[in-house]
Amino acid sequence: MSDDRLADYRRKRDFRRTSEPSGGSGGPSHARRFVIHKHDARNLHYDLRLEVDGVLMSWAVPKGPSTDPREKRLAVAVEDHPLEYGDFEGVIPDGEYGAGTVLIWDAGTYRNLSHDEDGRDVPLTEALANGRAAVWLEGEKLEGGYALVRTKRDEGRDWLLIKMADEGADARRDPTGTQPESVATGRTVEQVARDEGPRGTSSGAVR
Ligand code: MN
């Protein structure tokens, strides 16, 4: 099943050119992971990824996550990614899909908080299908509840990512501004680009 879910992901990439994982070696994993990549592409954005049913469901968040419950951050649903993508940090070559620098801005585990109006637990897959989900993140930078609410615009691709009012909420924090570095390697996007960028210039031969 996760193989079918990755067809879109694979179609967009040339794995002879990019060091991103092609997927397929990710077995079942117990703790459900979440990762937030900082992606310095044509437009800088953050990619929220939640492990669901053997893949990383993904949303591109232009402004990144907030810790202020009054902030509603646009989160655009993008294609599922393989579980191994959660470990990816590096440079996607020029001319490739998503060309730019990627670092692991936050990572950890999460649990499902989704429930219906009567307070009954709702499985995450179902909650996401219904366009209304909540997760509890235990990351290095982000902690606590976040709601994901699908809007009616743009054929269901647009969601809002909203911090829930709990002990992890803090309107004065600005984590994307004050904590720009990778939780995996401590590097900034500039350092990742310098360490792992192309040695030569783009060949221009691809697409
Ligand atoms: Mn991205």
Walkthrough of the structure:
The chain is mostly beta strands. It is 13% helix and 35% strand. The protein is built from 5 helices and 9 strands, in the order ααββββββαβββαα. An 8-stranded antiparallel beta barrel has the order 1-2-3-4-9-8-7-6. A hairpin with a 3-residue loop joins β1 (33-40) and β2 (44-52). The longest helix has 8 residues, at 189-196. The model is unreliable at 26-30 and 200-207 (pLDDT under 50).
Which characteristics define this entry?
207 residues, mainly beta, eight-stranded antiparallel barrel, 9 strands, 13% helix, 35% strand, globular, disordered C terminus, binds manganese (II) ion
Gist of the model:
The chain is mainly beta and 207 residues long. Helix content is 13%, strand content 35%.
Major beta sheet, specifics? 8 strands, antiparallel, barrel
- End-to-end C-alpha gap: 30 Å
Q: Which strand order does the major sheet show?
A: 1-2-3-4-9-8-7-6
For the CA atoms, what is the radius of gyration?
Answer: 17 Å
Q: Roughly what fraction of the amino acids lie in strands?
A: 25-35%
Contiguous low-pLDDT stretches (5 residues minimum) are: 26-30, 200-207
Oligomer kind = single chain
Tally the helices.
Answer: 5
Give the helix proportion (percent range): 10-25%
The secondary structure category is mainly beta
| Global mean pLDDT | 89
Strand segment count:
9
Shape: globular
Small-molecule binders here are: manganese (II) ion
Please trace the helix and strand order, writing H or E for each element: HHEEEEEEHEEEHH
